[in-house]
Amino acid sequence: MLNSGWLDTFTTLCETGHFTRTAELRGMTQPGVSQHLRKLEDQVGHPLISRQGKGFSLTPAGEAVLAVGRLRRREEQSLMQSVSHDAPDIGEVSIGCSGSFAMLLYPGLLPLMQAAPKLTVRLEAMPRDGIIAAVLDRRLDLGIVGHRPDHPRLEATRLGVEELCLLLPAGEVPGDLSLADLDARGFIAHPDGFAYADDLFALNFPDEFRGADRLRVRAFVNQISQIPAPVAHGIGYTLLPRSGYDAYPQRDRLQIVGLPQGRSHELWLISGKGRQWPARIPPVARVIRQIAERLCSTSDAGT
């Protein structure tokens, strides 16, 4: 690492072109400036200037070192500006959550970004384990997960409870629904769907259900926003969290069918424990809480 004091003296010397003026600006003597220059040249291993009478010109090594000095100054200025101007409408906030929650959350973040042109929000849909790992590594500022994570470096705030929904086409009244009825329709499967089936069907059809791998799959969809589409067109059934249903634009073509034993999971907002949030994060966290509150109140009304 180049000595920062010597580098700053050399950069000032290049900008002024005079040893005397550099000494005045740096609060040094002129011999002190020359000493910094010699020490920096020894550290680099090459001469940095070529003297020409009372003036000097830069050697190729000097030009390279000057570029480093100027870059370091810009970085330090940027750092000082970011520290001294911690504003709620400037900077980047990164969030991780499930795909279904992301579809509800993103429209709620748009007014915040419209009002703050210098605010950048990065929203990523990812699995729970990936969210936790990214928050721990500081790649994400905030995460929304189901089930409270038990980790000493995480802070967790409970947002509420979201129900797991069995979705059928609207207008159909199945009456006493059996697993055989559902299997005749066919499962619209997706990456999380099999785990949802193991959770909900084992509870409601203990004598019939033999595992999600035994269900008759009618279609498989990997795009979260398109999972309800086949059901809306009268094809099969699916299982989604309430957020996946609420975010679907044609949910009037769907119905949530209740089973004797409902299932739900908690939602938790997580961040790094002990971290002092920059001013830009609390407004985003408030939007997350508002979206979760509406979602969970809808879930409560449906149970």
TrEMBL record:
It holds the Pfam family HTH_1. SUPFAM superfamilies: Periplasmic binding protein-like II, Winged helix' DNA-binding domain. It comes from the Bacteria. Keywords: DNA-binding, Transcription, Transcription regulation. Residues 2-59 form the HTH lysR-type domain. InterPro entries: LysR_HTH_N, LysR_subst-bd, WH-like_DNA-bd_sf, WH_DNA-bd_sf. PROSITE patterns: HTH_LYSR. Belongs to the LysR transcriptional regulatory family. PANTHER family: HTH-TYPE TRANSCRIPTIONAL REGULATOR, TRANSCRIPTIONAL REGULATOR LYSR FAMILY. This is LysR family transcriptional regulator. It comes from Hoeflea ulvae. The lineage of its organism: Bacteria, Pseudomonadati, Pseudomonadota, Alphaproteobacteria, Hyphomicrobiales.
